[in-house]
Amino acid sequence: MTLPIFLIGARGCGKSTVGRTLALAQGCQFIDTDYWLQENAQQTIAAIVEQEGWDGFRARETAALEAVCAPSRVVATGGGIILSEYNRRFMREHGVVVYLCAPVDVLAERLQAFPEEGQRPTLTGKPISEEVSEVLAQRDALYREAAHYVVDAAQSPDKVVSDIEAALQLARAS
Ligand code: ADP
Ligand code: MG
After folding, report:
1. Which of 17, 33, 101, 111, when mutated, tests ligand 1's pocket best, judged by the most ligand atoms within 8 Å of its CB?
2. I want to staple 76 with a disulfide (CB 3.0 to 4.6 A). Which of 5, 15, 30, 150 is the partner?
3. CATH architecture observed for domain 5-169
4. β-sheet with 29-32: strand ranges across
């Protein structure tokens, strides 16, 4: 049995992109909690936040995390999943948690190039690099607290995948 792998990190760090490739390489199923909860709710995240507020969305996110947690899965999570202490502990206790860490300029550049992939409502209404910088300042310590491994996500997707695989070998050997 292989523990689920939880990929955490800021919007744009590559959780979905890298997660799909990693799942294929490991013979695992790939699940995206944001996608899963939108399918389950039959609503977009924007609509959920509008109707239920961020608290309503966060409750659905925790339920999604619990529902998708199963062996042989790669789980890409939403950027704010680590805000809840329960979620941080849940992931650490039930799987291997990998933080895809990238600097603000890299994240902002990716989000600017592909704005439609960050379909979430803006958190602050500020310009993208400012928002990324503020959000990362608030969350970096929480990502690190939740993670078993921290991987440099500013590298090419293939290199990020191979670094995660090296970390997983360590995890499985210990
Ligand atoms: P997340 O799921 O963490 O929000 P995505 O996987 O959707 O991030 O990636 C956001 C954007 O950045 C996508 O357009 C993707 O193609 C690009 N991207 C992701 N990882 C990398 C990488 N390692 N190198 C270059 N571009 C990347
Ligand atoms: Mg994603």
Report:
1. 17
2. 15
3. 3-Layer(aba) Sandwich (3.40)
4. 29-32, 73-76, 5-8, 96-101, 149-152
